[in-house]
Specification:
alpha/beta; binds S-adenosylmethionine; ten-stranded parallel sheet; 11 helices; binds 6-(5-methyl-2-OXO-imidazolidin-4-yl)-hexanoic acid; binds iron/sulfur cluster; single chain; about 325 residues
Length: about 325
């Protein structure tokens, strides 16, 4: 295709102007149906028009408040109602968070993401989190928090503390959401994302693949993310980590190529966003991770733990980067 940079982001049979109307589920399904080599080529074109294709951003996660969550998210080890072996813990003390952030910085992470197993933060908890944000920011790291649903004014408080990103995943297609979570609604997630945007924070929002959803559901999730205006700056694509004791413990794993196609669809529909190859990487061969980078993933979680589950050791990731000629940013 003799594509201009902009046209390279389009389906072959759609004029550039049509993009103003946003993506449709049928268009994203059509991307999924492309021969894999054509899809990867399209994704690489879009990627190279917008990024250095050999650069990868690295974020380190820390669970600052683990377990005991009131919500019923069917995939989550931290929901109090499932027997997963994850114990409820108190909010970590500031010094512990700061030490973990310093260690992440020393290992080369550029962003530090703090997660809490809350439906949403209480005001007194938020005050403590803002202290963490100020301290981590003081180390020269970008900051991200994921605290659940926000109430009026809370996003502004986070912004005031110097927060860079708020993570709040749409997680799955609106029409599948009720089969995964019943204690809050997809619309609630959109509401929080709206508040985050209004406060002037950058948005990190993505989803989980491999929860028994259909390809159409996956395409619809990508459309819901891509049609946010503007799209999220950061888009984590998680492969379900099956947690014994949760309703999703026995869901059949998704086909590897279907996962790669999802990354490519995210890259093509959200050309300027960082697409993060997120949970599930520990179970992935290096070759599969390389295919995900080829499909346009340009960010990872870095460090040996996600929130409650494992992630590849930093040294292993550094070795992989060297083998692939990837440069961390
Ligand atoms: N409680 C807050 C919330 O739900 O937004 C923040 C923490 S929650 C654990 C953050 C995200 O982790 C979820 O939205 C989901 O995308 C991801 N996640 C949780 N458990 C997972 C699992 N077993 N496999 C893959 N992703 C998971
Ligand atoms: C995201 O999309 N994935 C991260 C982060 N944002 C908060 C969490 C992954 C959690 C995986 C399961 C666990 O470790 O508990
Ligand atoms: Fe709670 Fe978040 Fe886990 Fe849902 S995903 S149970 S809200 S910690």
């Amino acid at each position: 295709m003799n594509a201009t940079p902009q046209a390279a982001t389009l389906t072959p049979d759609r004029p550039a102007t049509a993009r103003l109307a946003g993506w449709t589920v049928a268009e994203v399904e059509a991307l999924y149906e492309l021969p894999l080599m054509d899809l990867l080529f399209r994704a690489q074109q879009v990627h190279r028009d917008n990024f250095d294709a050999n650069e990868i951003q690295r974020s380190t996660l820390l669970s600052v408040k683990t377990g005991g969550c009131s919500e019923d998210c069917g995939y989550c080890s931290q929901a109090a109602r499932y027997s997963t072996g994850t114990e409820r813990e108190a909010l970590l003390p500031l010094e512990e968070v700061l030490a973990a952030a310093q260690a992440a910085k020393d290992k080369g992470a550029s962003r530090f993401c703090m997660g809490a197993a809350w439906r949403g933060p209480k005001d007194k908890d938020l005050t403590k989190v803002t202290e963490m944000i100020r301290a981590v920011k003081g180390l020269g790291l970008q900051t991200c928090v994921t605290l659940g649903m926000l109430k009026e004014g809370q996003a502004d408080e986070l912004k005031e503390a110097g927060l860079d990103y708020y993570n709040h995943n749409l997680d799955t297609d609106a029409s599948f959401y009720g089969q995964v979570i019943t204690t809050h609604k997809h619309a609630d997630r959109l509401d929080t994302l709206g508040q985050v945007r209004e406060a002037g924070l950058k948005v990190c929002s993505g989803g989980i693949i491999g929860m028994g959803e259909t390809r159409r559901n996956r395409a619809a999730l990508i459309v819901q993310l891509a049609n946010l205006n503007p799209p999220p700056e950061s888009v984590p694509i998680n492969n379900l980590v099956p947690i014994p004791g949760t309703p999703m413990a026995e869901v059949a794993p998704i086909d590897n190529f279907e996962f790669v196609r999802t990354i490519a669809a995210a890259r093509i529909t959200m050309p300027a966003s960082f697409v993060r190859l997120s949970a599930g990487r520990q179970a992935m061969a290096e070759e599969l991770q390389a295919l995900c980078f080829l499909a346009g993933a340009n960010s990872i979680f870095y460090g040996d733990k996600l929130l409650t589950t494992g992630n590849p050791e930093a040294d292993r990731d550094q070795a992989l980067f060297e083998k692939l000629g990837l440069r961390p940013i």
